[in-house]
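User: Second chain of the day. Same drill as before.
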Amino acid sequence: MTFSIAARCPKTLALGVSVSTAVPAVGSVVPHVEAKVGAIATQGQTNIFYGINGLKLMKMGFSPQTALDAMLKEDSKREKRQVAIIDKDGRTAAFTGKETLEWKGDFVGEDYVVAGNTLVGAQVIEAMAHTFESSKGDLAERLLKALEAGQEAGGDRRGRASAALFVVDKQPLPTRPFVDLRVDEHPNPVSELRRIWEDFKKLFLSP
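Assistant: Same format as last time:
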């Protein structure tokens, strides 16, 4: 019931997730990111342990695909899940369960994975992938642009409620070690997330 992108920057090695959905407080459950390890979006019938345990397994040295396979094997409700993973080296994995709601699907590109379910159509993740690939600069900005493109393409077919942006740099700022911005309930959550991001940049990221 969500659309998201998990990605990394090959230059700075930043990792992050942006996500939006039609239910409140998506930022508290879907994005899981750890510096020098990886980024995970766990959605569908969300199980946060795909994020928690996935990061633990990758920290132990498992590849995203091996970690995902291990977690799916232990989950009797795996066909209700959707998971997107990327690690610090750009290795990826994705899974869309057969029982997630239409439209559903995922796409793996260079340094990113997009995924969505309960969408208006495939054009949502196609727009996200195209926008991310064609964008440059800061990872947080690229992730937000991809999310905006997904919303503009139709997003969640049930409507809009929440959005989130979570990014961790390899070399974090002392006072703001990560970007963790959330819109928990709003009629236009992606637009509101953009407003918050612009204020955040002015306060904390401007020279």
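The first helix runs from residue 49 to 59.

User: Great, on to the next one.
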